[in-house]
Design a protein that fits this description.
Elements (H helix, E strand, L loop, with lengths): L2 H16 L18 E3 L6 H18 L2 E2 L1 E3 L8 H12 L9 E2 L1
């Protein structure tokens, strides 16, 4: 291999490695400290948020089921199902063995 070929291979490698990698998952916000409500679209009243938090926390204590309410302004081009699944996975909602997650 001559120097010119080596330079081309190095250049090609640098170009390939500098291309950003794209994630298959949508950009998911982190959960709030209350965990059960994230109102990014600002459509829930404070009393509604508190009701969801209290009801969900009580349900989790009694049954180990977790229900989380999330509102967003955009799904970033993803389907509602894919976006919800990404939230379930990132936040760790529910128990895999009990299959008790709801969003």
């Amino acid at each position: 291999m001559n120097v010119k070929q080596l330079q081309l291979k190095i250049l090609f490698s640098l170009i390939v490695w500098s291309v950003p990698t794209w994630s298959a998952d949508p950009p998911i916000p982190n959960p709030t400290s209350s965990f059960y409500v994230l109102d990014k679209a600002n459509i829930l009243s404070e009393s509604t948020e508190q009701t969801i938090i209290q009801t969900s926390a009580e349900l989790a204590r009694k049954t180990k089921a977790q229900i989380v309410a999330v509102t967003v302004n955009t799904l970033e081009g993803y389907s509602p199902e894919d976006y919800a699944l990404a939230i379930l996975r990132k936040w760790g909602i529910g128990d895999k063995q009990l299959n008790n997650d709801n969003l």
